[in-house]
Input
Amino acid sequence: MSDDGQEQNGHENVPSRQRRRFPEISSRAYEHPADRSALVALRKLSGFDTVFKALSGLLPERSLRLLFLSDSVRVSDQQFAHLNDMLRDACHILDLEKVPPMYVNQDPQPNAMCIGLDEPIIVVTTGLVELLDEEEMRAVIGHEVGHALSGHSVYRTILLFLTSLALRVAWIPLGNIAIMAIVTALREWFRKSELSADRAGLLVGQDLRASMRGLMKIAGGNHLHEMNVDAFLKQAEEYEEGGDLRDSVLKILNVLPRSHPFTTVRAAELKKWAESRDFQRIMDGHYPRRTEDKDTSVTDSFRESAASYASNVKNSKDPLMKLVTDIAGGAGDLGGRVRRGFGGGNRTSTPTKDRPRTDTEGDEQ
Output
């Protein structure tokens, strides 16, 4: 049972396990700064408010709910009772008063999502249920409850609808371009929101190793005896540091069509947050409350996000980010740095006064 008992805010029969609860916690407590800044940018996108209001009336949300009700298994005390207990427990810990309905959908692909405009719906696949153990599943359900608390389900629903719509109007050049611009912005925001939800999952499960195991299994399947958390995190470090500017560009191109960050990156980000002072303060009971949300300054939030981006760029070991830092710092010989970054570092450059040019040296191509 969570520290504050079993019958807070209508949640009963929560699993018997000592974990800290966070009454009135605001989603701002765990949201990644990049999540907040991307969301601000998304709302400032020209015409987005108009499109959003129009889509709110067009989205087939009733049809979506009926589809899951008719063709999936709704989690309850009678069906997937252990998942129902985890769901109630997650809502209890994050103090989400209304427990969202959750469905198990037959799909061998491990996946989970939180969708819905009026009210969030959580869907997990059979592939995920069969892949994860209890503690790993707690983190995933906490992840989805975090999406619900943050209001991410609204934008996820619009993303799914627009992605489908873009395929239907692909034959209309301008219409497709306009929709894909919004889809690209939504994907960028949603990738950042996944980092926030991973943090919510850790607050619910309160077991970092379980969160790490779950991410490893999603990447490599149910072969824990063949995998190692430290080696998995080393992959994330190698991914960030490795290669030259060409690889940096390829990383950007690879991630653009994705709705989720790469799994090793998520693991590294979550571990870094778990070791931070911010996480410890939340665990000690010091976190922003929902009652304070209305007084939150958008300007301050954007400034904090910008500072986070600047810090990430400054501390990044990615070749492109290093080049950006050099440019910002006014470093000399940037042309040479760019050439070396694209694999031209071994070639001889302009001759100097101390060393005369020889006949064997050719011009740069």
